[in-house]
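Dear support,

I submitted the protein below through the web form. The confirmation email said the job was done, but the results page showed an empty box. After a refresh the structure appeared. I'm attaching both so you can tell me whether what I see now is the final result or a partial one.
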Amino acid sequence: MDLSHTSRRDFLKASGALVVSVMIPGTVPIARAQTSGVGDGKPPLMPDELDSWIAILPDGNVTAFFGKMDMGQGVDVAIGQIVAEELDVRFERVNVVMGDTAFTCNQGGASGSTGIQNGALTLRYAAAEARRLLLERAAEKLGVPAEKLAVKEGVVSVIGESQRTTTYGELIGGQHFHHKLEWNKRYGNPLLAKGQATPKKPAEYNIVGRSIPQKIVARKIYGSLQYVTDVKVDGMLHARVIRPPSAGCGPVAIDESSISDIPGARVVREKDIVAVVAEHEWDAVRAARALKVTWAPPCAPFPEMASLYDHIRQAKATGAQVPIKKGDVDDALKTASRVVEAEYEWPFQSHASMGPACAVADVRADRATLWTGTQKPHFARDGIAKLVGLPPEKVHAIWVPGPGSYGRNDAGDAAHDAALLSKLTGKPVRVQYMRNDATGWDPKGPAGVYRGRAGLDAQGNVVAYDFFARGFTRQDVATNEGDPKDTLAGQLTGVPPRPTVIFQVPAEAYEFPNKRCGWECVPPLLDRGSPLRTGHLRDPLGPETHFASESFIDEIAHAAGVDPVAFRLKYVKDPRHVAVIKAAAGRAGWSKRTYPSLRRGKGPVMIGRGFSYTERNGTIVAVVAEVEVSRSSGRVWARQLTVAHDCGLIINPRGLRLTIEGNVVQALSRTLFEEVQFDRDQVLSVDWASYPILEIQDAPERIDIVLLDHPTMPASGAGEPSTRTVPAAIANAFFDATGVRMRRVPLTPERVKAALAAAETKR
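What the results page shows now:
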């Protein structure tokens, strides 16, 4: 079956369970429903239709249609648990279809830690409503009031008469509910639809709260999982896109004869997009290497890398906000007994996904199909519809697992490149980026400069707190690829970009009497088609901002002569925040050792610990980091991290722990290793040698996690909050170990040795 032409009703055709693995013509299995007859009359794919969310098959198995997707954190498992819980069926009988625009509504894709926080709400309400309707049907069939019925594992029975039963499959299997929900008329992350039913109370949960593993892990380990790189379509061409050696400089001339000896290879050009296509992938690779292109003279659009932060300080602002204003900060600073000041710097960083992006597009005159690993397939559909001139309903985007992404990585660009080349060639086209394309040309996490000032009175109390950020917007390209203006294909073919000017201030609950937090953005270094264009990278601006703010809090505490944990507890009053801070400190045994370290700066290996605490959209995290610093090599090893985490209701404890561990490891990598190198013309970080990431020998010996569960509270996100909390904990631990403040990330061995040497010189 070709999923590009399959309707949703095929998922409901009777004959057993949905099998998530379907054949694309001529190729690999990607997803298939086993089917056999069901009537027509399927309601339209709209959020206000219950059938858009829940389907019951004849054997009683359940299909949940989820408009987001899982990027390795087990969100699909949690959704399955929630749906199984509300319907009273076994978890194993729920299949979750994710991110296919023909079968799921646009819930915003993987975005902002909202998979459970936002995305699960409608699935919970829909499952509860489906159960209510099924009980109404059962009541009519069995001749008793609905309140006299009980459900266990999809079997409805009369209370006190256990022999009188029916099943979900018998009640509706293979048919449609034809039932309306109340919808808030919004798409994306805010989408919410609900029925009349009231979901279960936490005290009634049997499946939610259990640690159910991800089945997909075994498929990954044994190599049976089909990725987007495995997709093949009959008659498709392989393509490689050729980027300019100097950013911003388009092609002047192309010598097509330079690839004439490569069978079937040819050049495809559309304005500043240059690509080669061939029937065989290796021929496309060879052609990309051999093609002679004359490019415009170097443009030198970037400053010298060494002057990046001075450029940020001096550039004209394009926008500014001061979201937090309390009291009179300026007056309090003037009258303070002591003013503490510090500046912090954070570099450009790459997604550096495990593999370069890949996409397959088949664009025809009247319709198009896209296979993509993007985390936002609904938006990819919309963007490609604009790019190729089709209505969105004529474009089918199919999400297939890719190399992962935490934000706006290169997957969106690959999808648009594939669609454009397919339109130009009249053939299906598979675009596979090379490593240098992915690391060199993906949207980057923005660089920034952060300044903190705090006023202390004679007793060491904080009387004023002033925090200010300045950097490149986190949305030079949008969070998704829903418009060609936010992709290389669009910008290089003449679609004018329209950046959103947006930055961030710290998220915490410090109650200082006078408090001000603001930001300014500076213009992009190159206005279009830039390898240094900025976009969302896991917890957009969270690690950057809180590296600075929580390092500065540590500096204030030190200046006041107060233990960092005691200092935070002095100014944090919110009970949940206090509980998280205490939980992390308690588990790590913080009070058992004097802070700062009595051996600070002594010995060949210096040992220290640091604290950090933050909040993100309702999730509170505190981290204690214990580090070792080698004086001779400059290596910083985060030996152990203790994480206290409160995200409200916990759906799957094991999945949550694994998610937090992933946050911690990636945040460590960004704190200790990751920095995009560039010169006046181009990005120089194009592979794992020029853009190193954390390797196994640098992973923590132990990550100790304390989960604070609040079953009566809504579940908030976990995919990002602990990411923002780690960098400052490492920097603060470094200070505890060495007596030296590191105010620039990453803490590379070279930078560490230089800082230690400078400190020795001053002594």
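Response: this is the final, complete result; the empty box was a page-load delay. Residues 119-142 form the longest helix (24 residues).
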